[in-house]
Amino acid sequence: MGDWWLLRRRSGCYCDYKHYLIRWMTTSKRVQDRSKKKRVHELEVATEKWKITSKIIFLMELLKHEPEMVIPVRSLQQFRKQINLPKPHRISDFLRKTPKLFELYKDQKGVLWCGMTQKAEDLMEEQQRVIEENADKAAEHVTRLLMMSVDKRLPLEKIAHFRRDFGLPLDFRSRWVHSYPQHFRVVKEFDGVEFLELLCWNPNWAITELEKRAVTGITESGNATLHTPGMLSLPFPLKFPQNFKRVHRYYGEKIQLFQERSYLSPYADARGLKAGSLEFDKRAVAVMHELLSFTIEKRLVTDHLTHFRWELVMPQKLMRLLLKHCGIFYVSERGKRFSVFLTHAYDGSELIEKCPLVLWKEKVLSLVGYRGRKKKFEVDSDMSDVEGHDDLIQSGSQAGNLHVQMEQQDTLDYEDPLLGDDSEMDTEEIPQTY
Q1: Residues near 192 by Cβ (< 8 Å), separated by ≥ 6?
Q2: Which GO molecular function terms does the record list (predicted)?
C-alpha cells in the first residue's frame, strides 16, 4: 500500500481512507491558470482598449512639459519602458501611426523631432481644465484614503502611484498637495521620506459609497455630522461571470451568509481584528471596494494595492482574496501588470457612470483610432502591448469601429508578488471564502 500511496501523492491526488474522500490538488502557480474559468470577455476588452491610450497620454504629458513642447525622437529612447515598446520596434514608427496627435519633422542638421498637433495641444489644455474643475473631488478622495489608514498618514511616494487613477495633476507632489491645508499637510521625516498627514477628520466623508447608495441623501442630512464609523451589514453588489451560474446553485447559501455577515467600516480602527478571520477578510473586501470607488475608471493596477497592505490593514495574499470574490471584483491579466475591476460599475465593457476625465480619455482614443487587436484572451504574452502594433493603431479608423476578436498566443509565466504558492483559485475554494 505504501508504494500505491506515494504514487497517488506524486500524481496530485490525496486519498483519505478513513473518510473515503479524494481531493484533487494543483501544482499551477500562474494567475492565468487560476482565473481561467473566471474571465469576462467584455472587461478584457476594456483593459485592452485603454492600454494604447495610456501610452499616448504619457507621451502627450511628456511633450507638454518640454520648453517648446517638442523633443528629439532619440531622447524618447529612455522612455521605452514606460510605453512598453521594446527593441527593435522604432519609436518614430509608433508616433507616425497617430498623425492626428503627433508631428515629426527634421531640423537643418537632420535631427528628427517630435511635437504635438494643434488638436493634441487643445486636448492637453482641456485635460488641465477638467482636472482643475474636479480638484476638490480628488482632494476628498485623497483625504478619505488617509482616513482609512491606520496612522492617518501615508507616504507621499505611495499616493503618487494613484495620480492618474484619482485624476490628480502632474504637479501633484510639488504644488497640489499644498493646496488643501485644511485637509492634509506634507511632513518630512528625519530620513527624508515625505508623508501626507491628515489634519482634520471629516465625519461627512467617513461614510462608505455603499452606505451612500443604501441611504439616499445621507450626506445632505443633518445626521451625517454625527456619523461615527462602526459595524456595517450592507451587502456588496454582485455580478458573476456568465459561466459562473453554478456558483449560486451550489454555494448560494454560503454567499448569502457572507453578504449578511457584519463587518467593520473601512474608516473604523481595525488594529484589533485578527488577521485571517472572516471579519478581517470581509473588512478587507470593503476597503478594496471603497478604494476602487474613488478611481475614475473603477479599476486599479494590482501591484499598486500591495503598497498599502500594512497601512490599510489588508491581508498579505491580497490577490487571492480578489480572485475568490469574483462577484465583486474582476482581475484582468492583460500585459505585464494585472488590473482589478469593480464589476458592478461596468455594463459590458463600458463604465456605467463616466466622469469628465474618462470622457476626455475617450476623445483621445477616438483620435488614436484604436481598432482593437485580434487576440485570444485565454492566454497572454509579455510583449502583448507592442507586438503587431500596426494593428493596434489605425489612423484612419474611428472609435466606433472598436472590435476585439480572438486568436491563439503564448502564455506568460508571470509571478505576481501578491500570490503565494498555495493560492489555488477555483470554485472549490468558495466555501472556505464564505
Answers
A1: none
A2: RNA binding
